[in-house]
Amino acid sequence: MKHFTLAITWAIIVLLLTCLPMESTVEKVPAFEGMDKLVHTGFFFVFAALLGFGYSSKHKTRTARWTTAFIIFVLAIAFAFLTELLQYFIFTYRSGDWWDIFADTVGTCMGLFAYLLLHRDFIKA
User: Fold this and answer.
1) Which pTM does this prediction carry?
2) How many other C-beta atoms are found inside a 10 Å radius of the C-beta of residue 5?
């Protein structure tokens, strides 16, 4: 569990940020049309990368595994659905959106790509 402390902490931060009312802070942050989707992508990129880092440090390996990538993908997408369902049903001052889930999926795939790329054994010639 100690290897996944960063990922769990990040998940709590993301959960809090996605469930807080944003009307009061929107005026303070300069925004553009796709700012929300970019933030969702970044949140889940970091989440997937931290899960990959936790797995690598737990097993002390530099080899990426496809089964681990699949588990990370499933966990991150389940977390994405959880945040959107909470926004839609419980925190009604926020809006649950399919495009947010899509942005979360893109961020997760980017994080998995980083995990697979950075945690592979290079054959030295």
Assistant:
1) 0.84
2) 11
**Burial of residue 15, with CB atoms counted within 10 A of its CB: 0-12 exposed, 13-18 middle, 19 or more buried:** middle
CA 123 to chain centre: 30
**Domain-located, residue 123:** no
Counted domains in the chain: 1
Residue 103 within a domain: yes
Query: Does residue 125 belong to any structural domain of this protein?
Result: no
In this structure, are residues 119 and 64 in contact, taking their beta carbons and an 8 Å threshold?
yes
pLDDT confidence bin for 125, thresholds 50/70/90: very low
Q: What is the dihedral of CA 13, 49, 1, 3, to 10 degrees?
A: -120
**Which pLDDT does position 81 carry in this prediction?**
95
Structural domain range at position 55: 2-118
Q: Report if residue 16 sits inside a domain.
A: yes
